[in-house]
């Protein structure tokens, strides 16, 4: 159906969301597409899910400064037949602004209607945006967003040998590793970062580039950072959820991860310190 839609709908971008029910489990209320091109301009689709009201909303957001009036459509696509809702075009006067402007439909459809009317099937839902009054022969584009629980290689441990030789005043990063379709590193500040300097060891999860030409979009992750207890296996752990920016992002983690008073046995043994990350869930995006 995706390929048929792309072929028959120029000036369109389809945003497919798999494992839709996991949005509620992980309290995700907004999903952004990657930046895509329609008629030489840059855009995003934003899908909001209100868990309390059980409604979805959809918005079309310009990524380039514009000062023009355009007709656009935002909609949800049926998986039973070649229709989408709603059919109406909307005129949007883009005023010149340095910031993105999002326009669309609040409370597009209830969760019950999505299921009963064939828009949400097998935990998959498809949304889209079009510029119907713009002419082009270029086929439509599409991407898929999905939440993956316990992804491949979801546990990574960094053994910091000769820990005393690491400059305590600087940040140190592990080798690069891949989880989902993104590159990551663990970052350790032995004597703390910013306000925690001199008080705690700070540990962060750093998001870097993407593999396999994946769409550059924000990555949702729920992960656990841990320092390994090498004697009793009573590891020190901290868990959090965050959206990792599509560009290099080293802000997610814990400034006050471990008090410096604990940076000794059983966590630091024979000048070795083990720090790791475990991903409970991660989002991945791919072109389809």
Automatic annotation (TrEMBL):
<dbReference type="Pfam" id="PF22486">
    <property type="entry name" value="MATH_2"/>
</dbReference>
<feature type="domain" description="MATH">
    <location>
        <begin position="153"/>
        <end position="279"/>
    </location>
</feature>
<dbReference type="InterPro" id="IPR008974">
    <property type="entry name" value="TRAF-like"/>
</dbReference>
<feature type="domain" description="MATH">
    <location>
        <begin position="10"/>
        <end position="131"/>
    </location>
</feature>
<protein>
    <recommendedName>
        <fullName>MATH domain-containing protein</fullName>
    </recommendedName>
</protein>
<dbReference type="InterPro" id="IPR002083">
    <property type="entry name" value="MATH/TRAF_dom"/>
</dbReference>
């Amino acid at each position: 159906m995706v390929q048929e839609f792309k072929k028959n709908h120029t000036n369109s971008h389809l945003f497919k969301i798999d494992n839709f029910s996991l949005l509620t489990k992980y309290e995700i209320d907004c999903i952004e597409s990657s930046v895509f091109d329609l008629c030489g301009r840059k855009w995003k689709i934003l899908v909001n899910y209100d868990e309390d009201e059980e409604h979805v909303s959809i918005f079309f957001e310009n990524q380039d400064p514009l000062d023009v009036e355009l007709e656009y459509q935002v909609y949800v696509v049926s998986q039973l037949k070649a229709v989408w809702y709603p059919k109406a075009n909307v005129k949007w006067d883009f005023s010149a602004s340095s910031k993105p402007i999002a326009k669309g439909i609040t409370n597009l459809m209830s969760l019950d209607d999505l299921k009963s009317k064939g828009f949400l099937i097998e935990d998959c839902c498809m949304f889209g945006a079009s510029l119907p009054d713009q002419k082009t022969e270029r086929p439509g584009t599409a991407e898929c967003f999905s939440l993956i629980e316990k992804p491949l290689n979801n546990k990574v441990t960094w053994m910091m040998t000769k820990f005393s030789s690491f400059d305590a005043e600087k940040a140190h990063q592990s080798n690069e590793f891949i989880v989902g379709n993104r590159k990551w590193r663990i970052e350790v500040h032995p004597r703390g970062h910013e306000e925690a300097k001199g008080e705690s060891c700070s540990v962060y999860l750093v998001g870097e580039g993407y593999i396999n030409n994946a769409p550059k979009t924000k990555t949702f992750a729920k992960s656990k950072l841990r320092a390994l207890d090498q004697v009793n296996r009573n590891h020190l752990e901290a868990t959090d959820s965050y959206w990792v920016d599509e560009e290099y992002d080293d802000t997610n983690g814990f400034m006050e991860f471990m008090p410096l008073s604990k940076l000794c046995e059983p966590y630091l043994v024979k000048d070795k310190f083990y720090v790791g990350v475990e991903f409970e869930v991660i989002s991945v995006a791919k072109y389809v």
